[in-house]
Amino acid sequence: MSDALKNFAASTVATAPSPATSGTSLTVAAGQGALFPAAPFDLTMWPSGAQPTAANAEIARVTAVSTDTFTITRAQYGTTAQSVATGWNVAQNLTAEMLGQYLPTGAAAGGDLTGTYPDPTLAAVGTAGTYGSATAVPVVTTDTKGRVTGVTTAAPDDTTKVPLAGGTMTGQLIVPDLSVSGLTGATAASRYVGATTSGAPATGTFAVGDYSIDQSGAIWICTTAGSPGTWALIDSTSKTATLTNKRITKRVDAVSAPGATPSMDTDTYDFFDFTGLATAITSMTTGLTGTPVNGDLLWVAFTDDGTAQGITWGTSFESSTVSLPTTTVAGARLDVVLAWNTATSKWRCLGVS
Hints:
- It is a single chain.
- With 353 residues, the protein is mostly beta strands.
- Among the domains are: 10-100, Elongation Factor Tu (Ef-tu), domain 3 (Beta Barrel); 189-234, no CATH class; 252-352, Jelly Rolls, CATH 2.60.120.
- The protein has one helix spanning 96-102, and strands at 10-15, 25-28, 41-46, 58-66, 69-73, 89-91, 113-114, 121-122, 137-142, 148-154, 178-179, 191-192, 210-213, 219-224, 230-233, 252-256, 264-265, 271-277, 288-289, 297-304, 317-318, 333-341, 346-352.
- The strands form 6 sheets. A 6-stranded antiparallel beta barrel has the order 1-2-5-4-3-6. Strands 16-18-20-22-23-21 form a 6-stranded mixed β-sheet, with no helix packed on it.
- The chain starts with 9 loop residues before the first strand and ends with a strand.
């Protein structure tokens, strides 16, 4: 068993052994017995004012400690008994014996080590070899100390990996961007860079050819690189197309009691449904806005509150072979259909019902 150790375990002799060269008890300075470890331990003794040497120092073995009094066995490890006197230095110094206790040359190693000191090696827990290949991945097993205890190989699971050409993949693939090299004739740089809630990306750095789809279904493409660059909306509505079996839903502005000068934005709505008319309309032109083009149609419906109300159209409207109505029909709905006349820049009455 190795001796216990303490830092700065040193003192001076208060009561010397008697006889000085063979006595087996000494006392250190008052209160300094606590500086030393529990017995047993080695104690080097040498004269005050000198360095310990083989000629003037002695190593004793302390076998018991009682407060400041040590019981000692003299002249240990080939040292010579000295005439120890009051005032001598005593200390638990580093000795060859102490080193031998902690670094025992030739002693068998234990625990995780094998062989003998001073050159033990790690005990073998696995089999040396090379593991893994193009078609197999190594599976490593370790113990609680992190040591490899076994290695086998297994075929990789490719079902969640990007397959080679012609392969099939399942699951979700998450990437920061997706760049396509393209087929012959379409090899310019292009990346799908993700979606926005609405509109083109407003932050980040992008390259020409990057494209994004916002959550409203609009497609945006980067035409000038930068942060965030310049983006163009791919406007499918500007392309010529033939609609088959498609319903075009009118944009309706339904207003109750619209007042004497109803508001009508013909760029926003196609059909205006005015109900509960309780006063005469003094001008259909005053509240009229929009930028119509040749062929645009406008549909206006009037329903009074049970009392017929007058309708004054103003300068933005004109009659055709069908005259503009000048009053509502009490308690009934009145419908007026008009078309934009680019020659006169007025809404022309096509029908009244």
